[in-house]
Amino acid sequence: MNLLNKSGSDSKPTGQTRHSNALTKVYKLFGGYGLSQVKEDFETEPQPATEDDELLSLRTKRTIVQKDTRASLENAFDILRGPVVVVDENLFVLHANAEARHVFSENLQDRCFSRFLRDQAVISEIKNVFTNQQMKNISVSLEVPLKRQYRLSISPCFQNQDILKQAVLEFQETTLIERSENMRSEFIANVSHELRSPLATIIGFIETLKDGVSDATAQVRFLGIMESEAQRMRRLIDDLLSLANIELREHERLHAKVDICDVLKEVKASLMPRIRASELTIRLDYCENLPAAMGDRDQLIQVFNNLLTNAIKYGAEGKYVDITVKANANGLPDGGASLEVHVRDFGQGIEDEHLPRLTERFYRVDKGRSRAVGGTGLGLAIVKHIVNRHRGRFFVESELGKGSLFRVLLPIHNNEPPEVTSATKL
After folding, report:
1. How far apart, in whole angstroms, are the C-alpha atoms of residue 316 and residue 377?
2. Within this chain, do residues 238 and 167 fall inside the same structural domain, yes or no?
3. How far apart are CA 98 and CA 82, in angstroms?
4. Where do runs of H (alpha helix) occur along 45-171?
5. What's the CATH number where 190 sits?
6. Are residues 242 and 105 part of one domain?
7. What band does 417 get if pLDDT is binned at 50, 70 and 90?
8. Looking at the predicted structure, is the pLDDT value of residue 307 above 90?
9. Do 272 and 421 share a domain, yes or no?
């Protein structure tokens, strides 16, 4: 965790500081309204006949105004896009807006915030604000369900007689900015390494052709190799750009409804020329009335295009590739209902030692064979990051001589309970 400079009384207010101060004032405004307005309304209306009636009237009005005040406060905070949490001096949550409940837990209210944010350094900084009575800005990293970066502004909220009773915690996400900076350096390192070999080949043949080659057959062969290497570079750049875009948006939530069987049929149809050339049979098996998946249709097409392409490249010896789809009542990290898609080939299989590293960038089990069939070493890395963005799970199982099984679990749209009937085979 990286702690930033705190904003003391002598520091020049920044846009972030002014925004957080305004947020604190809004909270204080709503909090003050409840008490002052009850007193004002009570004094301007006809007085009750007895002291008991007066007490009952005051309590009733206070209850009504407090409910209205709380509702207004909740509506105001829920409009904010970032998580906002209000805690007392014991770190019990007095209020959490909708985004905070989504990020941490739906059960935040009236519970200790340290149960949900387990970074003790951050918790200590929140406690220090109650001691120092000054606003503090720090960087926070949340690891689950995906790693996300936030800039946390901790603002003291004073009540009557300058007594500090609450603190407003405002989280502003910086994941996109930090990932962009990290990916820039990674992109340069990966590209320089992977492009060096094909570029050297192309430059070598260009120099040979410039020196003059009288044999027309050799010229055609050289140009064919140069074209192949250029196509390899193009595929590599396309995959790198695709992976960079996926990683950049990996933290964003998806809500669209996707028919996974239609996606698989479309992928199968698009790859039919390669399927026929490999003399493979693709068997698609799924149940009727499967619930829809939740996600990005184009990215899911990319997932299953990569998996089926791999099966065609490395599983042709088996003559068959089986794709099956089923619904589960659970299976996801959060315990939610899932759609499970299996892509199984019956090729050579993969040794156990390679399985944990298959989704690493540029990792190849057989580098020579991978390049020979047009692989970039990025296909399964792309699959992993897309599945992560969908809050799903991805598994690889393999046995030498028997083939490989790739399992993808995706969330069901709106977590609808699976209701399936008879199976369909294509």
Report:
1. 19
2. no
3. 9
4. 51-78, 98-103, 120-132
5. 1.10.287.130
6. no
7. low
8. yes
9. yes
Q: Which two tokens stand for residue 335?
A: 């315990």
Look at 240 and 26; give whichever has higher pLDDT. 240
pLDDT in tens, 343-353: 999 888 888 88
User: What is the SS3 assignment for 255?
Assistant: coil
Q: For residue 200, give its domain range.
A: 177-252
CA distances from 42 to 31, 38, 56, 372 (A): 18, 6, 11, 85
Q: SS3 of 59, please?
A: helix
Instruction: Judge whether 384 and 359 are in contact, CB under 8 Å.
Output: yes
Helices 297-314 and 379-389 cross at an angle (nearest 10°) of 150
65 and 154 co-located in one domain: yes
The count of other CB atoms within 10 Å of the CB of residue 241 is 11
> Contact at 8 Å (CB) between 258 and 408?
no
pLDDT at 147: 76
pTM over 0.85: no
**Residue 367: inside a domain:** yes
Looking up residue 349, the CATH number of its domain turns out to be 3.30.565.10
* In a shared domain, residues 22 and 164: yes
Ranges 192-201, 293-302, 320-329: which has the least confidence: 192-201
Among 413, 387, 383, residue whose Cα is nearest residue 290: 413
Domains in the chain, number: 3
Residues above pLDDT 90, as percent of the chain: 15
Sequence-distant (≥ 6) Cβ neighbours of residue 35 within 8 angstroms: 62
* Mean pLDDT, all residues of the chain: 77
Instruction: Say whether both 71 and 141 belong to one domain.
Output: yes
Whose tokens are 């299976």? That residue is 331
- Please identify which residue in the block is written with the tokens 């409910």: 67
Spatial distance between the Cα atoms of 70 and 57, rounded to a whole number of angstroms: 20
Specify the CATH number for the domain of residue 119.
Answer: 3.30.450.20
Of 30-44, 157-171, 255-269, the least confident: 30-44
The answer to whether residues 300 and 240 belong to one domain is: no
**How does DSSP assign 211-246, residue by residue?**
H----HHHHHHHHHHHHHHHHHHHHHHHHHHHHHHH
- pLDDT category at 4 given cuts 50, 70, 90 is very low
